[in-house]
Write a structure and sequence with these properties.
The complex is a heterodimer of chains A (about 500) and B (about 325).
Chain A lengths: L24 E2 L1 E3 L2 E3 L5 E6 L4 E7 L3 H20 L2 H17 L1 H12 L3 H22 L17 E5 L5 H14 L3 E5 L6 H12 L7 E3 L4 H9 L5 E5 L2 H11 L5 E5 L5 E4 L5 H13 L11 E5 H15 L20 H16 L3 E3 L15 E4 L6 H4 L6 E7 L2 H9 L6 E5 L3 H10 L4 E4 L18 E2 L6 H4 L13
Parallel strand pairs in A: 1-5, 6-7, 6-9, 7-8, 9-10, 11-12, 11-16, 12-15, 14-15, 16-17
Antiparallel strand pairs in A: 2-3, 4-5, 10-18, 13-14
Chain B lengths: L5 H5 L8 H9 L6 H11 L6 H13 L1 E4 L7 H12 L13 E5 L3 H8 L4 E6 L9 H13 L4 E5 L2 H5 L3 H14 L9 E5 L2 H4 L2 H13 L4 E3 L11 H18 L4 E3 L7 H15 L11 E3 L2 H14 L12
Parallel strand pairs in B: 1-2, 1-8, 2-3, 3-4, 4-5, 5-6, 6-7
GO molecular function (chain B): deoxyribose-phosphate aldolase activity
EC number (chain B): 4.1.2.4
InterPro entries (chain B): Aldolase_TIM, DeoC, DeoC/FbaB/LacD_aldolase
Amino acid sequence: MAKNSTPFEYAPAPESRSVVDIKASYGLFIDGDFVDGRGSSFKTVNPATEETLAEIAEASEADIDLAVRAARKAFRGWSRMPGKERAKYLFRIARIIQERGRELAVLESIDNGKPIKESRDVDVPIVAAHFFYYAGWADKLEYAGLGPNPQPLGVAGQIIPWNFPLLMLAWKIAPALACGNTVVLKPAETTPLTALLFAEICQQADLPPGVVNIVTGAGSTGQALVAHPDVDKVAFTGSTDVGKAIARAIAGTGKLATLELGGKAANIVFDDAALDQAVEGIVGGIFFNQGHVCCAGSRLLVQESVAEEVLHRLKRRMATLRVGDPLDKNTDIGAINSAEQLAKIRELSAIGEAEGAERWAPACDLPSSGFWFPPTVFTGVTQAHRIAREEVFGPVLSVLTFRTPSEAIEKANNTPYGLSAGVWTEKGSRILHMANELRAGVVWANTFNKFDPTSPFGGYKESGYGREGGRQGLAAYLKSTGLKGGDL
Amino acid sequence: MPTTAPTGLAAYSEVTASEASLKRFLHGLPGVDQVGAEARAAGLGTRSIKTSAKAWALDLAIRMVDLTTLEGQDTPGKVRALAGKALHPDPSDPTCPSVAAVCVYGDLVGEVKEIVGSQVNVAAVATAFPSGRASMDIKLADTRDAVANGADEIDMVIDRGAFLAGRYLQVFEEIVATREACVRPDGSHAHLKVIFETGELQTYDNVRRASWLAMLAGTDFIKTSTGKVQPAATLPVTLVMLEAVRDFREATGVQIGVKPAGGIRTAKDAIKYLVMVNEIAGDDWLDPDWFRFGASTLLNDLLMQRTKMTTGRYSGPDYFTLD
């Protein structure tokens, strides 16, 4: 029999856009209603096509004041409402998220550029799970081990990034509401659409007006929110630079903060690892969500004795990654979120080459419009290279080698960050040892980028402070009882 | 047929020289992380194969079917009917390809051969299928008998007892001996497939070791299951075997085929397997010479989906033959 003359070409399998209804323009969601902003406006674009999706209001200082006042007014009722009643709203929101899951996933992929298989199978299910999980806590706060009669903080100002727009919203809003706080949330400038759809879901769930307020805008809007005197708590996920600025801005004000910032995670592969699965973990660790992940495994530390084999397998695997239309169900890597981010990734990659690291990417056809960057690996990287120290926040992997476990630990910890780390070995005792030694908020063993609402998440050092998720995540939204996150 | 590069395999002659060295080699293969392997297989299962790609995949899947009946109640009439179906799976559509082979017990090979001639291969199970519990002489006689009856392919079972007891060299030697029993008087040989019964080996580490063991012993194909033990073929087990043949070809230059058998009943499942072949082993394996489905009910679902692709409508099961 002759060999097949044609290769197995997957025909386009696009998810339908008809499920979403994007309006021409959006206002702000304040006190339960959509209102026009008093400031200017900006456009949000589809990063895969550069098509303008909608005109978005940019909240001014006056708008922020309105939103915070609405949240303060709503706080009285919401914080005094019995926990089991608050839980009903959260359960209702969780169920609506599940019911409207496809709509949320498609909209997230259009606005953010992430592949539909991730928004559909990862983002949206975990978003619903967060609301379900914290709904369960709302009437059990007394039993969370955070002291008797735990009390909410008040109004939380929350600022979230563009890499997981809806998921970061859930991480912020679900625990805040469960604890009885009200929120003013600012989604990222480039990805406001799912937060605005979430505002509609709050209306659909009959959430009392003012409990959730969504204000769109860029950096100055965020600054105004952080600086507002009636905000009791600031929760921020984003870059370390902005995190530092926030910490400076609220110093001495009595405002509390949780900051979830950058990372440069080490993914450590020992020579006794299950290599095929380790390669999957490396690929998932850095190319998931185009590498726009603060806990991405962007530094591969591989034991020198298997380095060649791991790299061979890794490159072969990378050649099968499908880069393209985020709405195609077979796409593995979607679009880079913005022109600015693409420029940053290109700049750092060029620096990597200039510093002498060897750059490799599989041959792949990139669409002519939109923002794209192929999955890329740098070999021959050392601790002194900038691509080994700075967060690229893109599909770019730096490969370093080590000889012994102690060298792996030293190199892994030799970073100003400390958000996550991965360990690949078939030896259980080594996993436990590494987990003790690595200064990172999350250490994954024989897996990577696994998120669950029951598991606390957060960083060491310049990766931030405070924890989100789990019982520990409640502490960030309740008055201090003398217990710190680390005591839990 | 694989163009065997003996230089490639020769490098492993020391590995198979003693029980100790073979065990050391097999236990030195990289482990398989169960959670990771299953997640990878599930991930590939979410690929969406539509329109032209689906039509292409359905025809390929039909051409890869080893249409199988392995029952105590098999009669000459039953296997002849099956042979007729193998030639013309969809009598109403002459563009529908034939299947790869008909798979029966050794004594019924002649009946099938009479119908299919050389248009479709005839595969026979041997070596005390399905349990593999018999003396070596009996197993080899069983094989020789099937070959003498005209079998083009022999599906042998390994001695799982010996494998699980760690007597790898015994399993290796059985495969080597069975392969010799596949040689016909004219010097050609029946194509050998080695069945692991992965449902009894249980762990993916065992599946990877068995794969390397059989490949070093000179098999042409590695096959998951007899269909008599649950679970039979699964996506992750086949994934591990596809990784093994991929790695083996890189190491030796010798290409080995893979046959999942048992439990694959729907066209949708078959396409998931093809996606996995494509993305794990590569498109060199997307051919009936290198990948087969051991199945019986699968064929009708493939035909039903194929008809749906051409007519745009689903027909009832009565429009497809039951043989």
